[in-house]
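Here is the promised in-class demo. Please do not try to memorize the tokens; focus on the logic of going from shape to residues.
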């Protein structure tokens, strides 16, 4: 597929230097940014691409025949093409959105709402983000369909036998995270989608936490819909996309109406544009998507396989060190994990831990991570989460562990 395979091993120190923000201090300490699952940092090329767009090319897309309009449209459509190549799909099947949340709501309102009926079931897993729960609840309330939930094994991986047993004839749709934002579990989505397809179940994969960490070939996953967000993969906030099988896009009514998504409007009725533009009403986040295209080019320049290997090394180091900290418990030990580690320290509230770590310059997230049902399953109100990216270093892991030990003593 598309990911370039650079011949030389990446120079990770040089790559880290591409991220200006990582050089700053917090509370007088060097920043250790371990919150990339929340949002990723941006390399200078992405920041510069957004800046250059506004300085030199700014115009609306698809509306003007003048030179700037053509440049803006070319840059915006260039991102669609670049994403398509990165994900091994056709560009016409990629709807650019403000992120995963919008993409999943688009599937919910345009695909599911007109189709689901009383008695139908939406199958979800216990590890879903609220963005892959709440839209389905809203649709179920309106259609009379219900939600069924597949449980997890104690290590935080999906219990596949249990999942397949739940795929009864009443299940019309499966919503599943490719990678859990809390546990780091990488789900075998290709196998799961194959099983679902055999049973006539439409599959919606939430790829938010997969794309930053690994090469994703949507064609080989075999899903019906794949949603993702740009800001976790070095791109600007307010960017992302939904990929869908062409047959679905052609059959789906628009989600939002307005400019850009029409062929012809009369008061008697409107002829809509072909997909993907049918689903892109209004002026989009043009500059943000130009930045996302640059981000994808940047990631491809390093190589997603090299990124996955680097993060695998960092995760192994981090896990080994955390296991040595007395009283620390890691939640999520699936055999295939991305560099996302939720943890708790005996006797300390997750928020207190994160606040004290922040004073040491370490940024980790604490809370429910937009996954209340998973917290309930784990039997905790909140966790701390250290989430890494390829720009993190082994030295930062040492600094994090030293800070953790200090904070533990303080909380004593
Ligand atoms: C697994 C998962 N799904 C969905 C989302 C929502 O992404 P966004 O807020 O960019 O729409 C996130 C973001 O945290 C996520 O981690």
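The designed amino acids, position by position:
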């Amino acid at each position: 597929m598309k990911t370039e395979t650079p011949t030389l091993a990446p120079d990770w120190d040089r790559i880290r230097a591409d991220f200006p923000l990582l050089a700053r201090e917090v509370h007088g300490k060097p920043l250790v940014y371990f919150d990339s699952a929340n949002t990723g940092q941006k390399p200078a090329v992405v920041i510069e691409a957004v800046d250059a767009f506004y300085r030199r090319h700014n115009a609306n897309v698809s509306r003007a025949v003048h030179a700037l309009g053509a440049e803006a449209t070319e840059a915006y459509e260039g991102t669609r093409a670049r994403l398509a190549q990165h994900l091994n799909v056709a560009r016409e099947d990629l709807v650019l959105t403000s992120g995963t949340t919008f993409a999943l709501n688009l599937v919910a309102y345009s695909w599911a709402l007109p189709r689901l009926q009383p008695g139908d079931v939406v199958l979800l897993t216990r590890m879903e983000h609220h963005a892959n729960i709440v839209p389905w609840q809203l649709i179920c309330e309106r259609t009379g369909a219900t939600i069924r939930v597949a449980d997890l094994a104690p290590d935080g991986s999906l219990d596949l036998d249990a999942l397949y047993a739940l795929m009864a004839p009443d299940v019309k749709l499966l919503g599943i995270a490719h990678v859990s934002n809390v546990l780091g579990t990488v789900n075998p989505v290709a196998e799961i989608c194959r099983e679902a397809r055999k049973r006539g179940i439409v599959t919606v994969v939430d790829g938010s936490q997969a794309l930053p960490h690994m090469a994703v070939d949507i064609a080989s996953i075999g899903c019906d819909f794949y949603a993702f967000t740009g800001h976790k993969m070095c791109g600007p906030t307010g960017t992302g996309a939904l990929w869908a099988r062409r047959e679905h896009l052609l059959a789906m009514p628009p989600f939002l109406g307005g400019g850009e998504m029409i062929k012809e409007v009369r008061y008697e009725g409107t002829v809509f544009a072909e997909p993907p533009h049918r689903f892109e009403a209004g002026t989009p986040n043009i500059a943000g998507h130009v930045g996302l295209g640059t981000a994808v080019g940047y990631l491809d320049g390093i190589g997603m396989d090299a990124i996955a290997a680097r993060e695998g090394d960092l995760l192994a180091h981090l896990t080994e060190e955390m296991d040595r900290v007395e009283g620390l418990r890691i939640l999520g030990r699936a055999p295939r994990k991305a560099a996302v580690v939720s943890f708790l320290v005996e006797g300390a509230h997750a928020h207190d831990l994160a606040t004290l770590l922040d004073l040491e310059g370490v940024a980790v997230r604490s809370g429910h991570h937009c996954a209340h049902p998973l917290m309930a399953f784990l039997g905790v109100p909140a966790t701390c989460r250290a989430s890494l990216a390829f720009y993190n270093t082994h030295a930062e892991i040492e600094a994090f562990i030293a800070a953790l030990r200090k904070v533990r003593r303080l909380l004593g």
